[in-house]
Amino acid sequence: MMDDVHPSGASGRPELTLGPVLYNWSAQRLRDFYARIADEAPVDRVVIGEVICPKREPLAADALAWAAERLAAAGKRVVLASLALVMDDRDWEATLALGRDAEAFEANDLSAVEVRKGRPFAVGPFVNVYGLSTLRWLKELGAERICFGAELDREKMAALAREPGMEKEAIVFGRLPLALSARCYHARAHGLRKDECRFVCGEDPDGLPVTTLDGQAFVAVNGIATMSASYVDLTREWEELADMGVSGFRLLPQAVDMVAVARVWRDLLDGRIAGEEAHARIRAIAGGVPLANGFFHGGIGRAEVARPAGA
């Protein structure tokens, strides 16, 4: 049992956010997943929407609309997320409509920021924010919350977290989105063109593993997105994050028991377990997927720092 709980959230309680599903899950899988999240997961906010590929959006639209109502009825705050890469007029029209109509909105592309400026919005982790000048510019446009990018280390994160007037959030579990491309590696891996992809990314609900020539895990491909091979795990760093001023802790959905992951994090944030115990539980849930915290400690992203400085 921990002796000291950090009351870092705006309400005095650290918030737990479930990020959007970044993979091509079927409509039925999305419904089943969000029904269980609504009923069983101790999360405060749920960000939903098709962020990676606009071609997937029509397949998931009805399920996500249903999920938004289901989650709200269960008392979760629902935030609608924009595409992370707007490439043509059709993407722009979709972003424009979402930014105009959504009550709570997360911008993952600067075009989405343009749509929303002057009204409250959150900045998602796909918008690159590395310095205070950019953060202050976004705040002037209406940003009230930011989820830090995947590759920020503790020093950069702390500098940004000190900026007043915005809520800060960090990704603490899941494969990290590292890069986006106009090309689709997933389709190419199956010998298909992007325009005729047959939605083959749906065959890999946790990403397509990519290894080096000598067989080491390297990254995971998810449509046009390159994801980390490891799941980030910052259970042992959460108190340092809270001390910086981070009040939101984001879990990225993976093909594991996400209700169990959320319960571990709720127990951790509420002081019922310590970081080492939480880390051990997350490792068991992750199965054979390696855990990593290298970016936070300023090193190689896939590395797992066993003894964080100051621990």
What does this molecule look like?
The chain is built from 10 helices and 12 strands. The chain is an alpha/beta fold. Helix 9 runs antiparallel to helix 10. The two termini are 16 Å apart. The model is unreliable at 1-8 (pLDDT under 50).
Question: Which features would summarize this protein structure in a list?
Answer:
disordered N terminus; 12 strands; single chain; 8-stranded parallel beta barrel; 311 residues; alpha/beta
Structural class: alpha/beta
Number of strands: 12
H/E topology pattern: EHEHEHEHEHEHEHEEEHEHHE
Specify the biggest β-sheet: 8 strands, parallel, barrel
Backbone shape: globular
> What integer value in Å does the Rg equal?
18 Å
Through-space gap between termini: 16 Å
**Strand fraction band?**
15-25%
Count of alpha/pi helices: 10
Mean of pLDDT: 93
Strand order, biggest sheet? 1-2-3-4-5-6-7-11
Helix proportion of residues, in percent?
A: 25-40%
Write a brief structural summary.
By secondary structure, this protein is α/β, with parallel strands linked by helices.
Summarize the topology:
Layout: E1 15-18, H1 27-40, E2 45-48, H2 57-73, E3 77-81, H3 89-101, E4 105-107, H4 110-116, E5 121-123, H5 132-141, E6 143-147, H6 154-161, E7 167-180, H7 185-189, E8 208-211, E9 217-222, E10 225-233, H8 238-244, E11 248-251, H9 258-269, H10 275-286, E12 291-292
Parallel strand pairs: 1-2, 1-11, 2-3, 3-4, 4-5, 5-6, 6-7, 7-11, 10-12
Antiparallel strand pairs: 7-10, 8-9, 9-10
